[in-house]
Amino acid sequence: MAPKAPRASARQPVKTWIVVVWAVPSVVFLAFAALRLLGVTGNRYIIATVALTPYIGVVGLALGVVGLFMRRWIFGGIVLAFAMIASAAVVPRLVTDDQPTVFGPQLTVMTANLYVGRADAVALLDLVKQHNVDVLSLQELSPAMVQDLDRAGIDRVLPYRLFEAQRGASGSGLAAKFPLQQTQIAGPATFAQPSAIVDLPGVVDPEVMVVHTAPGVEAQWTGTWKAELAELPSASERKDRPRMLVGDFNATLDHPDLRDVVDRGYVDAAERRGAGLTPTWPAGIWPPPVAIDHILLDGRCAVLDYQVFDLPGSDHRAAVASVNLP
User: What residue ranges are annotated as transmembrane (predicted)?
Assistant: First the structure.
């Protein structure tokens, strides 16, 4: 009788090249996860990468599962564990937070980056009218854009203004349904960041500041970006003067620099409504869209609604939040 051939293994070993193809991005992911967990934003590349945390977290989860499938139990398990830890900071942004019970006036706030004045002024005012916006924060407000807004009839919708229009990306402004009393709470910055008290009927008059920090993903602005975020003011302790920071922060909630700002007494309107991953830039699909425009509110405010809308002519999307003041 001929000897029996040895039984083939039920599962063939994974080819070496496949393991290498999996291991290399896994090591890169672990390096990213370590930087993310340590709160490091040292240079433009790390700042840009941290902004992509929601995407990279999904990739990490996939790499971990693939590693376990290939029976790389230890390394695959480590990758999966780090991916789950990174995702744990992101997933809560999809869940609506508990709201404080407040009975103050309702206010609708909108932020719009005008892309160096290229946005469609008529479309912008259509959004303002449709959503009954009370206070509008504008970034990259050019003199030509002011003329476009005037021709479109902004005075009939938002009759009060505090504009610091400049050429290029430096200009900013506030427009409102109610009188504005200019304040000075921003330190020196790359772009204009005006602020004002909004004179509402009643005893509560919120203070709104336009935020537009330097882009940290550009090498010459990395240090400036960190400094400008660090210098943003804390929330006011006055119950009758809740403070709002509204605009283009050039940062996502994954950047520890922005989380530090939020921790000074604010809440992010999008995060509180479970829309913290809704992207605002770019308006297209590349680079991968992220949320860098924010409406930060005094933590005593209740967020009734938060939505994001396309703004023709701009590379950003406009964000609108309706809030109840304390």
Answer: 16-39, 45-66, 73-95
Say how far apart CA 51 and CA 35 lie, in whole Å. Answer: 12
Measured CA to CA, the distance from residue 197 to residue 208 in angstroms comes to 6
Structure confidence by residue, pLDDT tens digits, 91-114? 999 999 888 988 889 999 999 999
Same domain? 103 vs 72: no
Q: Mutual orientation of helices 53-69 and 16-38 as an angle, nearest 10°?
A: 140
* pLDDT at residue number 230: 95
Q: Are 147 and 235 members of one domain?
A: yes
pLDDT value of position 239: 78
Nearest to 225 by CA among 4, 28, 46: 46
User: By 3-state DSSP, what share of the chain in percent is helix, strand and coil, each rounded to 5?
Assistant: 35, 20, 40
CB 83 within 8 A of CB 109: no
Q: Which residues of the chain fall below pLDDT 50?
A: 9
Cα(9)–Cα(3) distance, integer angstroms: 18
Three-state DSSP at 103 gives coil
**Prediction pTM value:** 0.90
Q: Verify that 148 and 239 share a domain, yes or no.
A: yes
pLDDT at 156: 97
- The parent domain of residue 140 ranges over 98-324
Collapsed DSSP state (helix, strand, coil) of residue 313: coil
Based on the fold, state whether residues 156 and 228 are members of the same structural domain: yes
Given the DSSP bridges, would you call strands 106-113 and 135-139 parallel, antiparallel or unpaired?
parallel
Q: Which residues pair with 113 in a beta bridge?
A: 139
Residues 80 and 134 occupy one common structural domain: no
Among 89, 108, 135, give the residue marking a domain's end: 89
> How many angstroms separate the CA atoms of 98 and 261, rounded?
20
Distance CA 303, CA 258 (A): 19
Distance CA 273, CA 305 (A): 7
